[in-house]
Design goal:
Blueprint: H1 4-23, H2 33-42, H3 44-78, H4 80-95, H5 98-108, H6 112-137, H7 141-149, H8 154-192, H9 201-210, H10 214-243
Amino acid sequence: MKAMPWLVAALLVLIWQVWVTLAEVPAYLVPAPSEIARKLLADWHLLAPAWWTTLKVTALALLCAIVLGSLTAFVFVQSRWIEAAFFPYAVLLQVTPIVAIAPLIIIWVQDATWSLVICATLVALFPVIANTTQGLRSVSPGLLAYFELRGASRGQTLWQLRVPSALPHVFTGWRIAGGLALIGAVVAEFVAGTGGTASGLAYQILQSGYQLDIPRMFAALVLISVTGIAMFALITALGRRVLGRWHESEKPGHPR
């Protein structure tokens, strides 16, 4: 079963290659996978630094979103009044288009890298807040009553009951936030239009479009996709590592 996604991907790439070859589709319209691979190797000296820049911004944004989102969720779970007063503002971050506020952030923050990190963090923040808050509240009433009966403090209840119970929700939020951080980093760079040595993959896509170098554009898109898949896989593996020994959601035979 684990090999099925790879088999499907290989089949789709093969169909793509055969179709482009037989139909003689020009490379400036739809390049063949072989041409994309060739361009990826030929222009690696351009794409590799851009990939590292995008990866750095994405990783910093995800880390900021996890820290800020977790702290916010811990505050929300302490009081329903606090959550009711401030949760709508977290929703506001989610529904506000990043392309609308990115120019302001880029103007206010002089450092190009950190302006992109802030934009990507705003995109990735809400899933961490929402899922962590939901997880911290989704505790067994029986266990919660037992902790109260034993005279546990609010801090003991938080760290010994709520946090362990919330971990499946937490990792779900992290997986979603990882993809959104990557999207936010790429979109923010499109808006910023930064170039030079600090340019990321979005800048390479823009430059490739201007130069009608469509194979390089596809090569940059492949790197973005690989980065997103790798981040999702790493966070999933981390979740299984943490939960696999004790949580029922990771036990063999548990429905997914």
